[in-house]
Amino acid sequence: MGERVLARFAGPNGEIAVVEEASGARLYREGGVNQSCVLPGGEAGVAYVRLMASLLEGSASVLLLGCGGGALAGMLHRRGSCVTVVDVNPLSFELARTFFWMPAGIECIAADMSGFLRRDARTFAGIGIDVGGPDFSYEAALAPATVGGVRRALQPRGRIAVNISCETPDDAMPGRIAQRFAEARLEVWMYMESGAPGSEANAVILASNRRETAAELAAVAEAGWWLARLGG
C-alpha cells in the first residue's frame, strides 16, 4: 500500500497537501516539498526536529517561529513547556491540530516573524526557529535586525535552536546565519547532518545564553550528526 492524500489546500507557496504513508506517518507537503513528517500520536519523524526538541526540552516557556506540522510544539508541550507558536499562515495551525496531533493547549499566533518580535515584549527560556519553503531565503528571513529581535526575546541562560535546510552538506548558509547569532553575543554551536556529497542535509544552530560543554551537547544528538563550536 502506498501513500494517500488526506487533504489539499491552497497555500502562500503553492499547494499544501497532507499525505499519509502506509506506516501511518503523515507528511506536510508544500509546493511539492515535504516540510514535516509526523508519526502517529505527534512525535517527529525526522531527526532534526527531535534534536531541536532535545535542545529546548526543560525550558519553562518556548517560542517557536514556524509551525509546519506542529510536531516540535507538541513534543515540547507534552514534556511540560508552555509553548507559543508563530506562523505567517494561520492554516498551518488548523492543519497541525486536525491532521498532526498538535495539542489544543498550545498558543498559536498568526504573524510574520519579524513583526511579532517587534510587537511582543515577552521573553522566553527557549526559542526554536524552523521556517522555510519553496524559494525561501534564510538571509532575508534571519536578517541582523530579526536576529537582534530574537536575542532580545531570549531570557538569561536561554537557548535558541535554528534549523537550516542545506542543499549540500558543505552549504555555506548555516555558517553565515550562525555568525549573526555570534555577533549578538551568544555562544554558538552547530550540528551538521552527515550526508553524501551533493545530497540535501540539515544543520541545527544552537545559540546559547549560557556556557555549554561539548560532551553534554554531543550526548543529545542521534547518530549521523557532527558538532562544532563556532563562536561566542
- Looking at CATH, the homologous superfamily is Vaccinia Virus protein VP39
Could you spell the SSE succession in H and E letters? EEEEHEHEHEHEHHEHEEHE
Biggest beta-sheet profile: 8 strands, mixed
The chain-level structural class is alpha/beta
**In the CATH classification, which architecture applies?**
3-Layer(aba) Sandwich
Regions with little confidence, pLDDT below 50 for 5+ residues: none
For this structure, the CATH topology is Rossmann fold
Number-wise, the strands total 12
What's the helical proportion of residues? 25-40%
| CATH class value | Alpha Beta
Fraction in beta strands:
35-45%
Number of helices: 8
Number of domains: 1
Q: Termini, distance in Å?
A: 50 Å
Strand order of the largest sheet: 7-6-5-8-9-11-10-12
Question: Which whole number gives the mean pLDDT?
Answer: 93
What's the overall geometry?
globular
- The radius of gyration over CA amounts to 17 Å
Notes on the structure:
With 232 residues, the chain is α/β, with parallel strands linked by helices. The chain is 28% helix and 35% strand. The longest helix is centred in the last third of the chain and has 11 residues.
In terms of topology, how is this protein built?
Layout: E1 4-11, E2 14-20, E3 26-30, E4 33-38, H1 47-56, E5 61-65, H2 71-78, E6 82-87, H3 91-99, E7 107-110, H4 113-119, E8 124-129, H5 138-141, H6 144-152, E9 154-166, H7 173-183, E10 187-193, E11 201-208, H8 214-219, E12 225-231
Outline of this structure?
This protein is of the alpha/beta class and about 230 residues long. The protein has helices at about 45-55, 70-80, 90-100, 115-120, 140, 145-150, 175-185, 215-220, and strands at about 5-10, 15-20, 25-30, 35-40, 60-65, 80-85, 105-110, 125-130, 155-165, 185-195, 200-210, 225-230. The longest helix has 11 residues, at about 175-185.
